[in-house]
Input
Amino acid sequence: MKKTAVYKWVKRFSEGRESVTDEERSGRPATSRTEEDIEKVCQIVRENRRLTVRSIAEQVNIDRETVRKILTEDLDMRKVCAKMVPKELTREQKQRRVTICEDLLERQDDILGHVITGDETWVYPETKWQSAQWKTANSP
Output
């Protein structure tokens, strides 16, 4: 602690102050992290766990840093990637994929005779960060 701060506290206590807690200050109240805003953010994340902090902030109309604090501190969430997407395959990995595909093509008649299909599912390629989701500590 600096000497000037010590002198200020000595002066305050000699004038009759008994408490060491801060006194009320004038200024802008912290209204962004209200229970209502926390509940809004929680509801938005429940609907779509892949949203970014920026898009959540735009929906709730509060600051991005406040949304980040709500997610990490109040809701105890963190962003995790749903899958690992390799940036580049090695020559051996590429060759292994070609070999597997050639083997599947040779056996396609045998394999396709045993395939049972269900509903149609479209698969879109996505990056690692596009697959990231918000999770709580006890989420699977």
Remarks:
- The chain has a mean pLDDT of 80.
- The longest strand covers residues 77-81.
- Helices lie at 3-14, 35-47, 53-60, 64-74, 91-106, 108-112.
- The CA atoms of residues 57 and 64 lie 5 Å apart.
